[in-house]
Amino acid sequence: AQIQLILRDGSEMTVAGREGENLMKLIRDGGGYELLALCGGGCSCATCHIYVDERFVDALSPITDEEGELLDCSMHRQAHSRLSCQIPFHAGLDGMRIEIAPEE
Ligand code: FES
C-alpha cells in the first residue's frame, strides 16, 4: 500500500502505507520531514496539517471536536484539511494523495 505525498515546493514522493499506523508517522517515516508534527501525535500542535484527497474523504476517520478546534486556529484551513496524526491508515486509503499544508 502506498500514499502519494505532495511537498510544499510541489514535488511529489511516495510513502509506504502500514495498516493501523497514523498518516503523520507514515509521512515522516517516508521522509516527509517538512511535516514537523511537533507534539508527536498528541493532537495539540497542528503542525501535522495536511490536505486530503477528496476522493477518500468518506474512508477517513471522522474529525473529532478536538481536531476541529485545532484546525480552526490555522490560517490555512480548507475544506479537506485534517491533522495527519489523527488518521489511521488502512487498506481503503491505498493510493491516496496528500498535500502538506503551508507553514503557519
Ligand atoms: Fe501535533 Fe498532529 S502531530 S497535532
Automatic annotation (TrEMBL):
Read off the Pfam families from this record.
Fer2
Q: Which Gene3D superfamilies match?
A: 3.10.20.30
Cofactors that this protein relies on: [2Fe-2S] cluster
Name the source's superkingdom: Bacteria
Tell whether Iron is among the UniProt keywords: yes
Which PROSITE patterns has this protein been placed in?
2FE2S_FER_2
Which parts of the chain are coiled coil?
none
A GO MF annotation of the entry reads: 2 iron, 2 sulfur cluster binding
- Carries keyword Iron-sulfur? yes
Arranged from A to Z, the UniProt key words for this protein are: 2Fe-2S, Iron, Iron-sulfur, Metal-binding
GO biological process: one example: P450-containing electron transport chain
> Which parts of the sequence belong to the 2Fe-2S ferredoxin-type domain?
1-104
Family, as annotated: Belongs to the adrenodoxin/putidaredoxin family.
Q: Specify the protein name.
A: Ferredoxin
* Organism annotation: Pararobbsia silviterrae
Higher taxonomy: Bacteria, Pseudomonadati, Pseudomonadota, Betaproteobacteria, Burkholderiales
